[in-house]
Specification:
This protein is of the alpha/beta class. 31% of the residues lie in helices and 32% in strands. Strand 1, helix 1 and strand 2 form a beta-alpha-beta unit. The longest helix is centred in the middle third of the chain and has 17 residues.
């Protein structure tokens, strides 16, 4: 029995070989169950694209329902990328599209929807799309993209990594970007400070200045000097604006007294 679905998948195809990527995009665009499809030439570009989907939410224009993913790629390979995706609270579905038969066990261990061998046959790819569409429609909450609450993705040396939120000492605004500071260095992410303030409010982060957000657990000292207020965070002194000084002092007092 042929199942008909009105749901249109939003797809991302990832392959470092341009001819293979173009062929895959062509075949996916021809499938009536694919509402939109974009291409990426490596895992880092793909993770950056998926991270953008996290920011806009499942109903946003950048949402991704399913990733069609090659395995052998320079830098981060397809299996490693799929493993990173499992760290998301609700990751996109994954279909592997590869010339290598020997990785099927690892692929299905990572909850892949399907494993399609190259050269890709239209009928075989259509079967993979059918499986993804049925899963997406039957369990709509699975591929909804929400940030992992305990980590934030950053790009480092061409590789996407996940930094534990608890390791972040403070955050500095850089226009539409924010610089995350940890004991081991800093990372620039394309997320406004106001977004991180709202996202991490319940995780002990508080705004102390229009340019700075600090983690209360990493505040070592509160300094008062001639009417100015500053805090020492991981050996870095940061100024506290007047409008935020009273709230910060109250929060720090509650933390130390346990009230």
């Amino acid at each position: 029995m042929l199942l008909h679905s009105t749901f249109m998948l939003r797809a991302l195809a990832v392959d470092d070989e341009r001819p293979s990527l173009e062929e895959l995009l062509y075949l996916l665009q021809a499938d009536p169950r694919i509402g939109s499809v974009e291409g990426a030439s490596d895992a880092t570009e793909a993770l950056r694209r998926i991270n953008r989907a996290l920011e806009t939410g499942p109903a946003g224009p950048d949402a991704v329902d399913v990733v069609f993913l090659d395995i052998h790629m320079p830098g981060l390979d397809g299996l490693e990328m799929a493993r990173l995706l499992t760290g998301f609270a609700r990751p996109p579905l994954v279909v592997f599209v590869t010339a290598h038969e020997g990785f099927a066990v690892q692929a299905f261990d990572l909850k892949a929807v399907d494993y399609v061998l190259k050269p890709v046959r239209r009928e075989r790819l259509a079967e993979a799309v059918r499986r993804a569409a049925e899963l997406r429609e039957a369990t709509p909450l699975i591929p909804v993209h929400e940030p992992d609450p305990d980590h934030i993705s950053v790009e480092l040396g061409g590789v996407m990594r996940f930094v534990p939120v608890e390791d972040i000492t403070h955050v500095e605004a850089h226009g539409d970007y924010a610089r995350l500071h940890t004991a081991h260095g800093s990372h620039l992410v394309r997320i406004p400070l106001s977004t991180l303030e709202e996202r991490w409010r319940t995780r002990g982060f508080v705004r102390i200045h229009r340019r700075h957000l600090v983690a209360l657990r990493h505040v070592d000292e509160l300094r008062l000097d001639a009417g100015t207020v500053s805090v020492l965070v991981a050996s870095v002194e940061l100024q506290v604006s007047r409008r935020h000084a009273r709230e910060l002092r109250d929060l720090l007092m509650r933390r130390t007294t346990g009230r």
